[in-house]
Prior knowledge:
The chain crosses the membrane at residues 7-27. By secondary structure, this protein is α+β, with helices and mostly antiparallel strands. Helix content is 50%, strand content 24%. A 3-stranded antiparallel β-sheet has the order 3-2-5. The protein has a 3-stranded antiparallel β-sheet with strand order 6-7-8. Helix 3 (115-132) packs across helix 5.
Amino acid sequence: MEKLPKVGLPILIGFIILIVIIAKSAVTIDSGEAGVLFKTFGEGVVVDEPPMGEGFHIVAPWNKVFVYEVRQQEILERMNVLSSNGLDIKLEASIWFQPDFKQLGKLHQEKSEMYKERVLLPAIRSAARSVVGRYTPEQLYSSKRDAIQQEIFEETKKIVEDQYIQLNEVLVRDVTLPPTIKDAIERKLKQEQESLEYEFRLVTAAKEAEKQIIEAQGKADANRILSASLTDKILQDKGIEATIKLSESPNSKVIVIGSGDSGMPIILGNQ
């Protein structure tokens, strides 16, 4: 009976050691993640093999696995930048990015898990300051927002494209100007809008006046042509036609032939 504990104790210890080894060796990588293997007694970070994908993996207990999120991520960055005339502008931008999956080992080896703070954020700040410094506050507030956004994206991409980071998009969410500058710009834009409306009304009125002049000129030309074409002979013929039609009507009347001006009939009647 006393020998049983002595035999069972090494087995128990071995079982515990086995559990610890399995626990240390088992690595589960979740959806949207990838692992970088570090070989303690080898070459260190494995850079010449693809990263470890999603699922369950067994590694040597003396090695380490560094897990990275490889799906698209977002960073919201607020920064102060200067416009072309030296005014302080507050810029808020969203950066959509993800690590380069194939180069994940090199990213970990050269930049570490702090790659966002060490590479991406300094790059977006530098690009934003460079781009915004080319524009006036008025351009930042109104017409150039899309152009500024695209330029910041392109300049940031140039910086990080060889840093194992995939930049997907940069979105300028807000541009905040000093209150006095913003009010001045809004007043100017309002005045410009009112001026455009006034010019539109003037152009509309001028076109309407021109239309009326053209219509009046057309009527005058038509009357002049008609007057020129109505000779005495034509008027007499028209009068005769009218007299014939009136004589055929049942209303009582007296027609005096040749007694009117130019020899036209005079029509007398009670209707």
